[in-house]
Structures are given as structure tokens and as C-alpha cells.
Amino acid sequence: MKCIAVALTGLTLALSVPVASAEAPATPNLKEWNIPWDNTRPRDPWVGPGENTIWFVGQAGDYVATLNPETGDLKRYRLDPGTGPHNVIADKRGAFYAGNQAEHIGLLDPESGEIRKFKLEGEGPKDVHTMAFDANGDIFFTEQGGNRIGWLDVDQYDYRMFNVETEWARPYGLVVSKGSRPWVALFGTNKLATVDARGEIHEVALPREGARPRRLDITDDDQVWYVDYAEGYLGRFDIDSGEIQEWPVPGGTDAYPYAMALDDQGRPWFVETGPSPNRLIGFDPQSESFSEPATIPSGGGTVRHMVFDPETRSLWFGTDTNTVVRATLR
Q1: Which long-range contacts (CB under 8 A, 24 or more apart) does 137-146 make?
Q2: Would you list the domain boundaries of the chain?
Q3: Which CATH number applies to 2-11+43-274?
Q4: Is the pLDDT of residue 6 over 50?
Q5: Rounded Cα–Cα distance for residues 105 and 14 (Å)
Q6: Using one digit for the tens of pLDDT, what is the confidence trace for 254-310?
Q7: In degrees rounded to 5, what are phi and psi of residue 55?
């Protein structure tokens, strides 16, 4: 394993919090849908395929479900008790869910309701956490307790597992670049990680030892954006140059930024989960300005993951207050 240590000279740290300006992203419009299955922690929405189809999972309710945002109609597919789904991604083959507690990835057929289970192998925890498609439609995934990054060839049912060398690194949020290279936030330490074409893991050490990156996203030109949950920073890592820039988020050290995603202009959006209600905030890299916070009407509890839909220019996320939220950008 190669460890990429980023020197302090490669770090630009904004010491003061940029305030909202004319160039800052406009505050989005938020719409919430109450989920009638109480206390089930709806989370990790996924857009499509098809029109008016938003997938999500009930982590505490053992289900995969769809929402039609035009009609408000909901459809629930029950999973085995104790599945503990964390994440869902979908394409024309169906909806893949992360069976976090039951140690598998499941493929749900929306028409029949049938489920194909890809069981994980090996010693230790096999707690599938976050998944993302690569360019071929295969799946990279993280195991937080297992301390591994995995890859699943869906057609061949073939796994490759990559052990993270740093102990208790807690591989968490994951995204895949256009070149089908995974990037992972190692929530148990102050590092990001990636897997190269040879299957070697490379770790990127963030300059602050107290940093704990939790979610991340990547631009088409290989800029990795991440949120530091522990100390309240938004950061950007340039893969080519190794430069890291960071900005303290408006909520400060008690902000606990968690869910994040990039919009179609390359602007990061994130949710501060420390304040109650939780706050959705955008950032413009050109002006280095944050938007005015948008408070989540139900409070949010904790917003854990977020995706951007370019067709409607909307962010989607679930909340611990049992809602699914669309934030339409202006």
C-alpha cells in the first residue's frame, strides 16, 4: 500500500468563514414527503430509472421503497427482518440494496418483487455500507466494520476485496470517478482512500489529525470534495496536484456536516446535522461563498446521504424524522 502524505505547504486553509454573497448559491426550495411507516429511518434516495421514481430504503424498517414525487404514491418491498439496509442504487436491472446487518447485496426486481442475494465471504464483519456503480454497471462498495473496499461483478457474481491497511479506518462514503476509480472517506481516521487499476489501495492523509471525513463527491476533472464531520470543514483534494483546500463551515465545530453532493455546476452542498433543525448549505468555489442555510422543516434529526438529480436540478435525501426531501436549486 502506498500512503500519499499531503504536505502542509499543499494546504490552503480559510481561517474565516465566507458569508453569503451575490455569487453564493441561492437557497433552494425544500419539499418534504412524510413516510407513513413510522420510525423506519428512510434514507439514501436514488433517482430513477424511469420518470417519477425515487428509490429509498428503511434502515430501521427492513424495506426498499419507491416514491412518485408527482402523485405522492409510495410502494414498499419488505426485506427479511434484520436486513438493516443502508443504501440503494438502481438501474434497468432493478434496485441494488446494501444488506448491512445481513451481510449481502440484494438485487430487487421491481416487477416481481423477487430478490437475488449476493452473499459476502471472508472473516470479520461484512457490513455493506455505501455502493456506487462503475462505468460497466458493476458495483464498488464499502464495509465500515470490515475495514474493506469491495467490488462486485454483478453478471459473474465475482468479488474482489481490498483490505484497508490503517486499522479501524471505517471505510464509509464512496464515489466512483468517470474513469471507474473509487474514492472513499475513511471515517475512522483523517484519510481518504482509492483503489488503482492494479488493485492497490492508496491512502491520502489530510493535514489535520482530528479530521474525520464522512461523505464525499468528485467532479469530472478529478476534484474530490469532502466534509469533515468531526471538526466542521468542507475540503477539496486535487488528485493531480495533491493540493488540499479547506474552509470552515458556517456552523463551526458543532456543525457536524454529514450528507453532501455536488450539483451540475460543480458546487458542493452539505447538511449540518449539529444544529436543530438540520441546515442545508451550498458553496461556490469561485467566490468561496456559502449560501444562506435552508432549514429542514421537519428538523431532519440526522441527514446521512444525498444525491443530485441533474434532470430536475434537485437534491434528494432522507431524514431521521421519517421524511424524504427534495431540495430544488434555483
Answers
A1: 137/91, 137/93, 139/89, 139/96, 139/105, 140/174, 140/176, 140/182, 140/195, 141/98, 141/105, 141/174, 142/171, 142/172, 142/173, 142/174, 142/184, 143/171, 144/170, 144/171, 144/172, 144/187, 145/170, 146/122
A2: 2-11+43-274
A3: 2.130.10.10
A4: no
A5: 41
A6: 999 999 999 999 999 999 999 999 999 999 999 999 999 999 999 999 999 999 999
A7: -85, 150
Q: Which residue in this structure is represented by grid cell 421524511?
A: 323
Residue with cell 434484520: 82
Phi/psi-derived region of residue 250, left when phi > 0, alpha when psi is between -120 and 50, beta in every other case? alpha
Whether the link from the prior residue into 49 is cis, omega within 30° of 0, is yes
Residue 13 — pLDDT band, cuts 50, 70, 90?
low
pLDDT digits (tens, 9 = 90+) for 76-101: 999 999 999 999 999 999 999 999 99
What sign results for the dihedral spanned by CA atoms 273, 275, 281, 285? negative
- In DSSP terms, 265 is beta-bridged to none
Give Cα separations from 243 to 8, 204, 222, 256, 290 (angstroms). 9, 11, 12, 24, 21
pLDDT for residue 122: 79
As a whole number of angstroms, the distance between CA 299 and CA 95 comes to 29
What residues contact 273, with CB distance under 8 A and at least 6 apart? 255, 256, 257, 258, 259, 300, 302, 303
Dihedral class, residue 312 (left if φ above 0, else alpha if ψ from -120 to 50, else beta):
alpha
Q: Is the pLDDT of residue 7 over 80?
A: no
The reported pLDDT for the residue numbered 24 is 83
**Cell reading at 130:** 455505501
Taking the alpha carbons at both ends of the chain, their separation in whole angstroms is 44
pLDDT score of 167: 97
